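Intended use. Records like the one below are meant for learning the mapping from a protein sequence to its folded structure. Do not use them to infer anything beyond what is encoded.
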Amino acid sequence: MSTLPSDQNASGRDLGTDELALLKSVIESGTLTSTKGETVKNLELEFAQMLGSPHAVACSSGSAAVHIAVAALDLEPGDEVITTPVTDMGALAPILFQGLIPVFADTDPATLNVTAETIAARITARTRAIIVTHLFGCPADMGPIMDLAARHGLPVIEDAAQAFLAESQGAMVGTVGAIGCFSFQQGKHMTSGEGGIVVTADPALARRMRLFVNKAWGYGDPAPDHYFLALNYRLTELQGAVALAQLRKLPSAVKRRRAMAERLTSRISGLDGLELPSAPDGGDHSYWRYPLWVDPAAIEGGVDYLAGALRELDIPAAPRYIQKPAFETEVFRDQNTFGSSSWPFTLAAPEAVDYSPARFPGTYAGLDRVLVLPFNEGFTESHVDYIADGFRKAVEAQ
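Structure written out for the chain above:
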């Protein structure tokens, strides 16, 4: 079996003549900045149309997308934002940069997504927003989460960086909450190397997010100024050209991912000790990765054994995904932020920074058992069958 396609190179990325044609057009125009060009504007328009959202604003990365979303809420230093401990630092650092306190909710061990119940356990008088991450392409159970948020008057930001075209309760992920955030990083469902985009139905939030991308300069206003503290998070026309071509391929790419994931599920569903991925009722998975959970009582050695056995067959497999919850990193453990100040942790209530393992049983249980397989639109039936045969060999060799 040849090496499986990788989203880190051309073997697992659908990049080619469409991207080159749009890049050629941009280069020939001589306009590479999105403040003057049309390509990023077209990307925003087509992305918004695909998701059924009135507004989309492109930006320089998925981290920037989260920062833009959090900043758009215009919260006060020391305010609390509930989020997940199973995520990339790019989704957490923006909270700290805005002077806010990330408060970690526990996660469902069967999905590693936050739930209405785990979020509710962290709401305090200082809570001002909720960030829901749709991990691996699996939508969180948004119905109960939105009901909870409405009862407490809290805006919900969706981190959909791993969940392009996933659905929850009949709506596209990213359009359920107040703001949805997406990433165009190399390994996502669509890519421009780096880049991101935010969507919202709220014109006031859209206005503030577009300003934040542009140093709060009011392009097109009668008397523009820098209205508030903000950064330059613009996407270039070159990145926009690649992203636009990728966007037009996105439905096909997600359709192929789903088909291959369903094939893999059907091929390994009879193996003991494996809990396979599925979306909550009313949801539709888009399979950024293919995660599964391993029962060490049924498979001796658990995820470590299975990952090792698969790697011997040249099947990449990552046990535990991020290895440890985000609050165990030095940023949070040692409060390494701005110089020696520990700010904004100095503004936090004691319970907001209580990272005792007993408060996160689902997170630890889920990470201890999860095994994550790479997945991309380059996978074919033969690739999936090879992986399935590898699982069968590994499990039956017990």
